[in-house]
Amino acid sequence: MPAPDVLLRELQARREAILPHVRLCVCSGHTCSQRGSEAVLVELEELCAEAAGKGVGVERVGCSHQCDKAPVVHIVSKRARPVLIVECVDDPLQCERTVRLALAGDGQPTGAPCSGITSGLMGLFERRSASARWEALRALGRAHDNKSRSLALEQLDEAVDAELRACAMDGAAAARASRRAARLRARFVPKVDRALKLRP
């Protein structure tokens, strides 16, 4: 039987092989959670789903002890050192910039924006709907009872519908919005009915 240190090295090597090239580690400490880290986590997962195949993963981590800069995301790359820290990630554009930074730091071409959220091209309705989706995700992260959770889920569903309508005229944006809507609804919206049944 191999020595324990040999086994440990083998396990670490296997773990490194499985892990994505770049990991976006979202702080889930109390302050970050209060300032919307759950929304950051979901938004980054959505952006990474659009950038599929580029080796970017998202995970929740414990408190990073940078509470004055919350919400905080650490970009951990297999290739680039040291760890990059992105502070005050508090809107969809910041999330997109974080993914771009992760891809650029890993030596990958960033190309077109993952989500299509670019301030120069995005129309007023699209910006408003993205903002509404973001606020719904933040409310969902802060919900502590069934009533507030069900209200946040309804708000999210309305925001997703608004985003689909706002992107309807742009084929690529509409396709992205449709994929995002399907993922978000699969993740959250089926829980609305269960939450509503539990309302007092």
Automatic annotation (TrEMBL):
Which SUPFAM superfamilies has this protein been placed in? Thioredoxin-like
Can you tell which superkingdom this protein's organism belongs to?
Eukaryota
Query: Gene3D superfamilies recorded for this chain?
Result: Glutaredoxin
Q: Which InterPro entries match?
A: Thioredoxin-like_sf
| UniProt-listed CDD domains | TRX_Fd_family (cd02980)
Can you name this protein? Answer: (2Fe-2S) ferredoxin domain-containing protein
Q: Which organism is it from?
A: Diacronema lutheri (Unicellular marine alga)
The lineage is: Eukaryota, Haptista, Haptophyta, Pavlovophyceae, Pavlovales
